[in-house]
Specification:
heterodimer; A: 254 residues; alpha/beta; Rossmann fold; six-stranded mixed sheet; B: alpha/beta; ten-stranded mixed sheet; 20 strands
């Protein structure tokens, strides 16, 4: 069964069509990258998969492990195993990292029929996973994302990914605003989370993240549709030559 | 004179010389000038700016019995006090039932030497000098009708006095119970006096035993001598038919530190009038609070700090959560007189309004006549941050828990200022209780 199967997805926001018939199939264990210029619909795809209500799906379907993803509430999707690493992680003043993660982890565990983690186990896991992305373990007392640097916020997203162990992780421009060291740390964290039963959808503007997280499949999104699919060499060509050659090819009838 | 005002004045005349005997000459004078003033003022009407959003007259119903016999205490044996206390508070306890001190229910053993805690009526009888020096010495019976009314009808209440250089380690809980089975108008009074270098923490815990509509016009006065440290926490957790005007008047001598926390999590209509007079240099005053409105609860906090001396500091933080058809009012006045140089006065009021029908009226008022001061105020009224709720939900936390987490975090900044741990934990629990209704 596919991890994710998107068929003919049409999405509008405030009456403007953004996605215009998107098809995408991801098998378990695969890492797919979606690249595309600004305004092509990359973030819209991430938002729709995560369940943002302001986007209206006007046609098509999204199946996640054989279930209709679009019928699920935001929190239900997360409990079923969909994770979105935010492009702009939200600050939650007054909500401590440990409270937040304990609530989240235990919601997910309960859903999977697992017992809640004991306080001791929870702290141990937290410490272990924080080390994956080189986050200071003192963070547990800090408010979620409050006062975090740009790089810390992105590392915190991958840390949460590691804590929640999703089946499908969507990384929405996780590389934006990262310097080269932070990029490496984030990518290493993701690579260590790669598994046979876990898939990734990496949405990015630039190829450089894909030097570190090497995808199995690269898609190019243009004007709301996937117009080209290839292997990681496609990403390299886009990096070198931009999108114009592809636009020209598409304009010329074969 | 309106009909309702007339009822009070008539009741006063009826009981003057009996229930309002006033063996003490100063008390007798005080009552008479108070009732005279009340007769002139009447209850605040529509045009009164200070009561603009809280039309109090309509809540003082004419079927409220003005009962001065003090029957409440007689039924006190049926009250299970331990189940009414704040969990974890097992220190000294003063119990008022319908404004009358109950010595049977109270527990004041084990207090350090120099501490008097008990009935206000007894204290006035046994130590008339208290009436002389403190009682109503920082009241405004000339312009505040509820203060005038309470003062005219002083009968009983709680009295706490802490001698110079005496530290009371355990916080004292005053359980202010309204037991009435039928509509009544009650006027409890509390007098707290802390001597030089004394330290005391008092928790005033307001609760209802019955469901009858009752109106409390309570008044608490606090006098802090030089270097005294006083903490007063008021926890308002009354029933859905409780109407309460709570007035707190605080006078501080120099170098004293007085903090108040007002937590409103119950009742139908609550109005808190809180006035601070730092009456000397280097005073510190804290005015903090939280309020939660559900159903048709109406919560009004009016605060006033009168900075008349140099080098004083006041800090104020109120946080409110309003849902359903509830109404919140915050009016914070800070007055900095010309001589009050080097005043630091900070005020902040933040509210979250969760429903279309809930309302919040916030009015910070800074009047500054000195030119070398640091004063600030901030008032925000907004909605819950839905982006934050989305973020929490995207991690598997259900919508209700996500909202509760955000509201707890919002209130947490103020709750952290409650110095008595069991009280803070209990307020957190009550907040959870109220949030479940949201």
């Amino acid at each position: 069964m596919s991890m994710l199967q998107v068929k003919n997805l049409h999405v509008e926001i405030e009456g403007t069509a953004i996605l215009k018939g998107l098809d995408l199939t991801i098998a378990p264990g695969e890492v797919h990258a979606i690249m595309g210029p600004n305004g092509s619909g990359k973030s819209t795809l991430a938002s729709v998969l995560a369940g943002r209500e302001e986007y209206e799906v006007t046609a098509g379907e999204v199946m996640f492990l054989g279930e209709d993803l679009l019928e699920m509430e935001v929190d239900e999707r997360a409990r079923e195993g969909v994770f979105l690493a935010f492009q702009y992680p939200v600050e939650l003043p007054g909500v401590s990292m440990s409270n937040f993660l304990r609530e989240a982890v235990n919601s997910v565990r309960e859903h999977r029929g697992q017992e809640s983690l004991s306080a001791v186990d929870f702290l141990r896991v937290m410490k272990e996973k924080a080390a994956l992305v080189e986050l200071n373990p003192d963070l547990k007392k800090r408010s979620v994302n409050e006062g975090f640097s740009g790089g810390e916020k992105k590392r915190n997203e991958i840390f949460q990914l590691a804590m929640l162990e999703p089946k499908l992780a969507i990384l929405d421009e996780t590389d934006s605003g990262l310097d080269i060291d932070a990029l490496r740390i984030v990518a290493d964290g993701v690579n260590r989370m790669r598994a046979e039963d876990r898939s990734f959808l990496v949405i990015t503007h630039y190829q450089r993240l894909l030097n570190h997280i090497v995808p199995d499949v690269v898609h190019v999104l243009l004007d709301g549709r996937i117009v080209r699919t290839g292997d990681s060499s496609l990403a390299l060509r886009l990096e070198e030559q931009g999108y114009d050659w592809l636009k020209e090819e598409l304009a010329t009838p074969a | 004179m309106s009909q309702i005002t007339d009822r009070f004045v008539t009741a006063f005349k009826l009981h003057d010389g009996t229930h309002l005997n006033g063996s003490n000459e100063r008390l007798r004078e005080l009552r008479r000038s108070a009732i005279e003033s009340f007769g002139k003022l009447g209850l605040p009407g529509r045009k009164s700016e200070a009561w603009k959003y809280t039309p109090i007259s309509r809540y003082v119903r004419d079927d409220f019995a003005i009962d001065l016999a003090g029957r409440g205490a007689a039924d006190s044996d049926v009250v299970d006090v331990n189940s009414l206390r704040i969990p974890g508070m097992d220190g000294p306890l003063l119990v008022l039932v319908d404004g009358v001190f109950s010595s049977e229910l109270s527990r004041t053993d084990g207090l350090p030497e120099g501490v008097v805690a008990g009935s206000l009526r007894s204290a006035l009888a046994e130590q008339p000098e208290i009436a002389e020096s403190y009682l109503a010495s920082y009241n405004d019976i000339e312009s505040q009708p509820f203060e005038a009314l309470n003062t005219a009808f002083i009968q009983d209440g709680a009295f706490i006095s802490v001698a110079d250089r005496t530290d009371v380690a355990e916080p004292l809980e005053i359980l202010m119970l309204t037991s009435a089975e039928a509509p009544r108008f009650l006027q409890p009074r509390i007098l707290i006096q802390a001597g030089e270098n004394a330290g005391v923490q008092v928790v005033e815990h307001q609760r209802s035993l019955g469901n009858a509509a009752c109106f409390n016009n309570s008044l608490c006065e606090i006098y802090a001598a030089r270097h005294a440290r006083v903490s007063h926490i008021r926890l308002q957790d009354e029933g859905p038919n409780a109407y309460h005007v709570s007035t707190t008047r605080i006078r501080q001598d120099g170098e004293s530190d007085v903090s108040t926390f007002t937590a409103t999590l119950g009742g139908r209509l609550i109005r808190n009038n809180l006035s601070f007079l730092p009456d000397g240099e280097h005073c510190t005053s804290h005015l903090n609070g939280v309020f939660v409105g559900t159903g048709d609860r109406h919560i009004d906090n009016h605060t006033f700090v009168d900075h008349a001396w140099p080098n004083c500091e006041s800090n104020e933080l109120y946080k409110g959560i309003l849902d359903d058809k509830s109404i919140g009012v915050f009016n914070g006045k800070v007055f900095v007189r010309r001589d009050a140089q080097k005043t630091n006065a900070y005020q902040s009021n933040n509210s979250v309004v969760l429903s279309e029908s809930a309302k919040m009226f916030a009015k910070p008022e800074l009047e500054i006549y000195a030119d070398d001061v640091k004063c600030s105020h901030g008032a925000t009224t907004g909605q819950l941050d839905e982006e934050a709720v989305f973020y929490l939900r995207s991690r598997g936390i259900d919508a209700k828990s996500a909202r509760t987490m955000m509201l707890n975090a919002f209130a947490g900044e103020a709750l952290d200022l409650i110095s008595v741990v069991p009280v803070r934990e209990h307020v957190e629990a009550l907040l959870e209780r109220e949030l479940v209704k949201l």
